[in-house]
Design goal:
single chain; 255 residues; alpha+beta; Heat Shock Protein 90; 2 domains; two-stranded antiparallel sheet; 7 helices; 46% helix; binds adenosine-5'-diphosphate; binds magnesium ion
Length: 255
Amino acid sequence: MELNSLAIISHEFKMPIATIRGGVEVLRRYLIVGRIDEIDTATYMKSMQRNCNILARLTSNLIALSQKELSAIYMDYSCVDFCKLIEDLIKTAKETLEASKINYIKKIEEAYIVCDIEKIEKVFFNLISNTVRYAGKDAEIEIIIQSNDSVLEVIYSDNGPGIPKELSEKIFEPFVRINNESTNVVSGSGLGLAIVRKFMNLHNGEVKLTTDTGEGCVFNLKFPLDDQNDLSFTQNAPTNRDLNATAEIEFSTIL
Ligand SMILES: Nc1ncnc2c1ncn2[C@@H]1O[C@H](COP(=O)(O)OP(=O)(O)O)[C@@H](O)[C@H]1O
Ligand SMILES: [Mg+2]
């Protein structure tokens, strides 16, 4: 790891730790003096929980990115209707972020694929959280799903400030961020898109930044459908997964 990356990541750890530490100290003092009302407790608890989520997200991203070998990463496969998976995660994102400008266009009825559901959720929550952070809460997102015999394709686009064409490959590397006035005000570690690419690769898929109009971002995500022979042997999607908990962690920096 380069020194500069270490500096970025240490900085990202510092803020949430300071907030949690401050919260614990306030609660401790109030408890000793015996003057604590419920509102204060709830506010401090909420802030500490949010900051724990920020740390949880940061560490799990670092762990995933530090594995060189894709085979070293555990995949929890199940067989799901991809359209339903996307619908569910859009619904949760809208509820969690109170943002409603996600336009979903489905060009196919259903598409059963074998995937690690939680990783797919993280892919899209990362893209959505970037749009909200860099393009603002009122930004519009469009998600199109289409497929042919061999590829399932998702086109994700937003109407924010966009990413310069010359960075369309480099932006997927860890710690790479854009240096300009509009994006610099948002803090971040540059790990999100690296996670998106890694998790797509884990599905033998790919992600590309394909913006060509110079406005907003367009991400093209592809999943191969022809290496899904073991589909019938795979377990069905677990029914008890907690999508809200995943969203709270993935959106922790903007909640
Ligand atoms: N939807 C978007 N619109 C504009 N810029 C974006 C968008 N998504 C990502 N970026 C730019 O790409 C950089 C890398 O994104 P990412 O890897 O998610 O890291 P982070 O969000 O932590 O900075 C961001 O710092 C930002 O400059
Ligand atoms: Mg990000």
